[in-house]
């Protein structure tokens, strides 16, 4: 069974986090919510508290098939300020394992050096950050370039989750989940 680590920080975008995790778990993907520290109760941008499954240190030695970053302004800022996360993202990409981000969070991938030379998308208005770090900016809702998948924002979270499911468990399973959830 494929594994995914979804990193969350205070101020994450709730719609993105919950939608992505829901889609991945429905597809049978082992999905772990990882807090940036050992405080597992994490408050989102709209005051919804989500309980992470593990803290940052607890998954340090575990390799996931994919690392996913939800957006949200304050959450993205916290993810971007976490230099050990940047190291983890670079190691993940260097090992040929998937990295993904939605909304403002592709800027974290850009700053970590993961988007250099790759096509990517993000929340409107943040394209310059991606371009400054060598990404080829796209306006598509969801973009996959090799091992990197990015998406634009809350309204695209379902399609983003389905794309990740397709990449991890195949077209047929992703299609079935997408249809059952009325995304497709």
TrEMBL record:
GO BP terms: glyoxal metabolic process
Source species of the chain: Andreprevotia lacus DSM 23236
GO cellular component, one term: cytoplasm
InterPro entries, per the entry: Class_I_gatase-like, DJ-1, DJ-1/PfpI, Prot/Nucl_acid_deglycase
Residue ranges constituting the DJ-1/PfpI domain according to the UniProt record: 4-165
Name of protein: 4-methyl-5(B-hydroxyethyl)-thiazole monophosphate biosynthesis
Pfam families xrefs: DJ-1_PfpI (PF01965)
């Amino acid at each position: 069974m494929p594994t995914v680590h979804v990193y969350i920080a205070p101020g994450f975008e709730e719609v993105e986090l919950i939608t992505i995790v829901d889609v991945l778990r429905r597809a049978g993907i082992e999905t772990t919510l990882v807090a940036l520290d050992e405080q597992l109760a994490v408050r989102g941008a709209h005051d919804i508290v989500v309980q992470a499954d593990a803290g940052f240190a607890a998954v340090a030695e575990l390799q996931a098939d994919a690392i996913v970053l939800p957006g949200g302004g304050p959450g993205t800022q916290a993810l971007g300020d976490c230099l050990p996360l940047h190291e983890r993202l670079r190691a993940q990409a260097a090992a040929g394992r998937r990295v993904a981000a939605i909304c403002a969070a592709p800027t974290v991938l850009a700053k970590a050096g993961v988007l250099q030379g790759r096509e990517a998308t993000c929340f409107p208005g943040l394209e310059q950050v991606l371009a400054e770090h060598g990404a080829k900016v796209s306006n598509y809702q969801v973009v996959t370039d090799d091992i990197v998948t990015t998406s634009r924002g809350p309204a695209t979270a379902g399609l983003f989750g389905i794309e990740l499911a397709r990449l991890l468990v195949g077209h047929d399973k992703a299609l079935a989940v997408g249809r059952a959830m009325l995304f497709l």
